[in-house]
Amino acid sequence: MPSIQARLFRFVLEHRHLLRFQRKRRTHFDFTTSIAEFREDCEKGARLFGKLPEGIDVTPLQINNITAEWIQPSEQPKDKLIVYVHGGGYVSGSCSDHRAIVARIVKSTGITALLFEYRLAPEHPYPAAIDDAVDVYRWLLGQGFSPSNMLIAGESAGGGLALALLLALRDLQIALPAAAVAISPWTDLKCTGDSYRSKNEVSLAPLNSWTVFSKYYAGDKDPTLPWISPLYGELHGLPPLLLNAGEDDELFDDSIAFAKNAKAAGVDVTLRVGERMVHCYPFLPAFIPEARQAMNEIVEFIQGHLAVKK
Predict the structure, then answer these.
(1) For 271-282, b where at least 16 C-beta lie within 10 A, e where not — what string?
(2) How far apart are CA 225 and CA 45, in angstroms?
(3) Average pLDDT over residues 278-304
(4) Which pTM value belongs to this model?
(5) Which SUPFAM superfamilies does the protein's record reference (predicted)?
(6) Per the count of CB atoms within 10 A, which of 32, 79, 137, 308 is most buried?
């Protein structure tokens, strides 16, 4: 049974449309929906929770024309690194709308993060995002970062892209990072899981958004290509993984299926399921016990695999 804090916060999220004097609870997505407006809505939502924790420095940089920023504990060396891959359905997401949630992880772990902006669909379909992610990782290696001192993390589409990045690095014979964290990862852009239908009514995502996002990102490519949908890849040789999934999420089955396949391939994979939790629930406010517990486990996993003294 979810905590009362989780239920109350869920109630507010489900009825936030009333505060906007809107009759419909959820937006219906189709191919006429404005992606520009969707991106702006994401930016506006992030600004509501955009205050950074104290003691965090943000330094912008460019990596081969890719906008990025260091998010770093003040006066701490960049000897360990979280490479963070933002979500947004491959059609939205930026440093500005993910800075605050990444800063929370940085503050809790004491480890610097690199947050970067890969090219977005529909303007830049596959393989733009995975190419940019590989370029950033190669650049980090060129800057002297050891793979054993790096961990890849991401949420939603960014969680899926983080897992796809692992496959790409392995296939390209580039040294893999120490571990990876994927929060509510989108691993199946063919959207075959039953949760895309069974969780449709309880999900907070815009209706039909995943099928629209998938078409925009995959373009004319087969959505089951492993670098698009890591669920369909050969998963041997991957580093330790922590996956987190909420039951009331259309992507729920993506995590279940990926974790099952990874375990069968001999990967050290941990799957945590949040009972009746929503998409990316670890990023909900810390006063919600389920979010706090999930975030604490993510922090411990990161610190443990990057050998950080607590």
Answers:
(1) bbebeebbbbbb
(2) 32
(3) 94
(4) 0.93
(5) alpha/beta-Hydrolases
(6) 137
